[in-house]
Amino acid sequence: MTLHVYLSGEIHTDWREQIIEGSQGLDVIFSAPVTDHAASDDCGVAILGEEPNKFWHDHKGAMVNAIRTRKGLEEADVVVVRFGEKYKQWNAAFDAGYAAALGKSIIVLNPPEHQHALKEVHAAALAVAEEPRQVVEILRYVLTGTLPG
Fold this sequence. Notes:
- This is YtoQ family protein.
- The protein is built from six helices and five strands; from the N terminus they run E-H-E-H-H-E-H-E-H-E-H.
- The protein has a domain at 3-33 and 76-144: Rossmann fold, CATH 3.40.50.450.
- 49% of the residues lie in helices and 16% in strands.
- It is globular.
- Helix 1 (15-22) packs parallel to helix 6 and helix 2 (37-48) crosses helix 3 (54-75).
- The chain has a five-stranded parallel sheet with strand order 2-1-3-4-5, sandwiched between helices.
């Protein structure tokens, strides 16, 4: 069995790389949004033309980015949604809701201090992890039935 895993959320740490590296040898195909913050913010105006109003600047970028995000979420078997410590990831919350509406298996990854704020997102998830290693262990278990050694 091959799992298609979409890695959504926080872009300021190496959690994606930790999961991808830890999953070496497993039958997993990963996808993710564009994680270059400047490119993600400016893609709409860079491609479609400048906007003097910041709202429309951001709107164009969000729409262009949504093409990739929707495809990734719709093709995923599992959606990992990471909420980091430093910033509020409103886009990650939106991705989690979209994934839930699509009936996707969701793993939420967040520090313990966000438990209360994310209770509704957690209620839609099949697992809530605090470390990327735990996500890898879930993927390994799902694919092989093997528990952590």
